[in-house]
Specification:
Number of domains: 1
Strand order of the largest sheet: 3-2-1-4-5-7-6
Structural class: alpha/beta
Strand content: 5-15%
Order of helices and strands: HHHHEHEHEEHEHHHEHE
Radius of gyration: 18 Å
Helix content: 25-40%
Oligomer: single chain
CATH topology: Rossmann fold
CATH superfamily: Vaccinia Virus protein VP39
Length: 275
């Protein structure tokens, strides 16, 4: 499949290439056995990414990708131990394969993103009989009715909710709490300081005037107090699931990981919706 420079589809390749770097540099923390095959079927000039690949910033970015993906995989696999026939829902999936990497042979997989993204995904990652790829706007809550949650449901979102306004998140989370009783939502978040940094370029391009309206978590219970029937917990994004003490991880990266989890409050949030 050919993907052009400066296209919307091109943005899907950055995290995909990051997963390739994870495989090569940090396989003890994350390994995606499907990424090489996926990349081999994409017609695109990766030379610029390859040129940047040895830079410390790019390498630490790959480690961040590794940590986020393995954190979410751990959470999904844990849920499937007690709900083996549950639905695994990947929100804003892009070309991410968290669901597929957790497939136990009996769960159902849902991948949700905008229709143009799903068109690319359908060509590169054709769904099997237990997988549905849905082209939706997550803010159009009609998609909730598409999910079979009778045997349990775990929803995951990687790098997605930073682009949502607080009002949109409140509406979305309250709808999930009502619809998916007994289910679980797991996603990555950061504090307001970090979100401002992450969205700086995007905000300018989108013509956004008030970054403070966008979703961030500074204090978990306080910022999600509107969820009255949900148990809330979190772990550090970078160090909550692993200590990163493998000799292959530079000391500088462990220092930056502490800053990310501490100063920037990067975390994996888990919401358990009560029955």
């Amino acid at each position: 499949m050919k993907i052009e420079k400066n296209s919307v589809q091109e943005t899907l390749l950055i995290p995909l290439y990051g997963r390739k770097l994870c495989n090569a540099r940090f396989p003890m923390y994350f390994y995606d056995s499907k990424v090489e095959d996926l990349l081999s079927r994409i017609d695109y000039d990766f030379s610029e990414m390859e040129r940047k690949a040895n830079g410390l910033g790019y390498q630490f970015g790959a480690l961040e990708v590794a940590m986020r993906q393995t954190d979410l995989i751990i959470e999904v696999r844990e849920y499937l131990k007690t709900h083996p026939k549950a639905s695994v829902v990947n929100l804003g999936c892009g070309l991410d394969m968290t669901g597929e990497n957790c497939d136990n042979g009996s769960c159902k997989l849902y991948n949700l993103d905008f229709q143009d993204v799903i068109n690319v995904r359908n060509e590169l990652i054709p769904p099997n009989e237990r997988t549905k790829n849905l082209g939706v706007d997550l803010n159009d809550l009609a998609w909730l009715s598409e999910i079979d949650a009778k045997n349990g449901v775990i929803l995951v979102a990687a790098g997605v909710f930073y682009y949502f306004k607080k009002t949109q998140i409140k509406e979305l989370f309250l709808a999930m709490e009502e619809k998916f009783k007994g289910g679980r939502l797991v996603f990555d978040s950061a504090n307001s300081r970090a979100v401002r940094i992450m969205l700086k370029t995007w905000v300018k391009d989108a013509g956004v005037t008030s970054i403070k309206d966008y979703f961030a978590i500074n204090h978990l219970e306080e910022d999600l107090a509107f969820l009255k029937h949900t148990t809330k917990s979190s772990k550090g994004y970078m160090l909550g699931y692993h200590d990163l003490k493998d000799p292959s991880v530079p000391g500088l990266f462990r220092f930056l990981a502490k800053i990310a989890d501490g100063f920037m409050k990067m975390q994996i949030v888990r919401l358990d919706f009560k029955e």
